[in-house]
């Protein structure tokens, strides 16, 4: 094996693909500090900003996703796909990687396809319990597929599947001795129950409306709330709540200190995005999941059901949330035994050290 290796990581589109990709890059560098990692993403997408912020170089392909509604637009998409394949081939020839890792999202399609054709080992990482289209198409040529859920033989060749879990941030587990710090950070009281409301990296409209519509109930129940609205809904929620919420209801667009928020949450209301679920499992949190109905192949419902089937979370459908979300949350907060059962089952589903395990898999496939 060479002393220093070069890796390409490709994919992106949402935080859900990008943050795991960065965690994998960090794990590769931890294992071999001299190694070099190049990212390939899609021009104009979120990865072009987040990856350099994490200290890595990224090059964009002129690719975009296929439009399922406007078929004519796909003619130009095909041309962009062809251009992207050419650019990916040039980049791979020049960079000469030892392995190429795909984390899902259409940006990874051309890079991984070209790499496999050139005989370079390709490794896939699938975050969700229902595999994305790009990863499904790439799987037959991949050296292995690192997954986060059981039962992924539905999508990938059985002998290539490795259950590693999703690589998530290392610093989410707060030292129990620092819980007081977390209460102080949010100006909340230790003696009261705390509900954490998160809607994925961008916030969730239905969850916001469900909380807003039943604010009185929450306040009457004496529950403290940390409510992440997402940046698009923040001004609207802030205006609607200004002056009529007690100080123990925190309304924010984004929570930078998720370790503090998780540490003091008795119950978490969340979308069922892959990283959010992996975090809830790792920390053994009691949760109510409201899957987004607006994602490809309804994959968030599949993610949520993986927990519900093991009595590890409660699921409420998006359409039912305005009616029942707050009632269910209050009921759960008052039922310590039920919280404990859900939390224990959820923790049992956690996968530990995922980024490190994925990095080890990648190294296994590097040619000697
Ligand atoms: C709408 C959409 O397309 N969502 C998809 C997106 O998820 P999306 O990027 O929304 O969400 P995930 O749940 O995977 O990850 C959210 C991340 O943001 C963090 N966070 C969240 C709120 C906050 O205030 N602060 C904060 O730091 C969470 O701790 C977590 O690490 O990619 C995932 C992985 O493919 C998919 O499963 C989701 O279906």
TrEMBL record:
One of its GO terms (biological process) is carbohydrate metabolic process. Keywords: Cell cycle, Cell division, Cell membrane, Cell shape, Cell wall biogenesis/degradation, Glycosyltransferase, Membrane, Peptidoglycan synthesis, Transferase. It holds the Pfam family Glyco_tran_28_C. This is UDP-N-acetylglucosamine--N-acetylmuramyl-(pentapeptide) pyrophosphoryl-undecaprenol N-acetylglucosamine transferase. UDP-N-acetyl-alpha-D-glucosamine binds at residues 14-16, 128, 169, 201, 255, 300. Gene3D superfamilies: Glycogen Phosphorylase B (3.40.50.2000). It is a peripheral membrane protein. Pathway: Cell wall biogenesis; peptidoglycan biosynthesis. GO terms for molecular function: undecaprenyldiphospho-muramoylpentapeptide beta-N-acetylglucosaminyltransferase activity. Belongs to the glycosyltransferase 28 family. MurG subfamily. Residues 7-144 form the Glycosyltransferase family 28 N-terminal domain. NCBIfam families: murG (TIGR01133). InterPro entries: GlcNAc_MurG, Glyco_trans_28_C, GlycoTrans_28_N. It catalyses: di-trans,octa-cis-undecaprenyl diphospho-N-acetyl-alpha-D-muramoyl-L-alanyl-D-glutamyl-meso-2,6-diaminopimeloyl-D-alanyl-D-alanine + UDP-N-acetyl-alpha-D-glucosamine = di-trans,octa-cis-undecaprenyl diphospho-[N-acetyl-alpha-D-glucosaminyl-(1->4)]-N-acetyl-alpha-D-muramoyl-L-alanyl-D-glutamyl-meso-2,6-diaminopimeloyl-D-alanyl-D-alanine + UDP + H(+). It is found in: Cell membrane. Its EC number is 2.4.1.227. Cell wall formation. Catalyzes the transfer of a GlcNAc subunit on undecaprenyl-pyrophosphoryl-MurNAc-pentapeptide (lipid intermediate I) to form undecaprenyl-pyrophosphoryl-MurNAc-(pentapeptide)GlcNAc (lipid intermediate II).
